[in-house]
Amino acid sequence: MPPAQALAAEREDADARTRIVDAAERLFAEHGYHAVSLRTIMGLAQVNVSAVHYYFGSKKNLLQAVLDRRAAPINRARKERLFRCIDRNGRVASVEEILEAYIGPALEVCSDPGGQLFVRVSALASVDPSPDVQDIMQSIYDETARLFVHALRRACPRLKEADLYWRLNCVYGAMQYLRANNGRVARVLNRKPRPLDSRTVQEALRHVVPYLAAGFSLPSRAP
Q: Are 104 and 128 in the same domain?
């Protein structure tokens, strides 16, 4: 095949793959993973039904591609920031810095184009009982989550395991609720809901990170 034709074919392949991922992300966000057929995804992407098997092999692999597209940059940012929290001499940063290194990238994606669709897909997948979906969700974030916990243990060496467990639940709960941005808090405060753009993400971090960090500064509770 002449070089020009080969390049055109590569571009066509990349374009088709992107359209499939875009379509799957939108439909998974609107209806959930199990409620959407591959045929519906291919119809929205305007490609042949067999294309999903050619590019991805299975519906599970397509979900993986949808999540990887935005989770991979989140994980890269988390790793870079968390590694800066522990220097070569073993000195560890403050709990606030560690929390911001981990939570920041998860919120920043909300202000990216299409970020809210990804957040919706992630939220639905996180509560999906299907082993296939849970395997994907756990594997995507496990490495950076373990690095996060390692840094927290270094910063809070006297914190008992049970306290760390429950306080981490609070961190994850706050992070997921902020990402959902469902307007509930604005409603009960009689305020206008605000989008999670770059400005409000930074505002959220300024308020939420110190609040969560204060929880880790409390002594362990007696049994």
A: yes
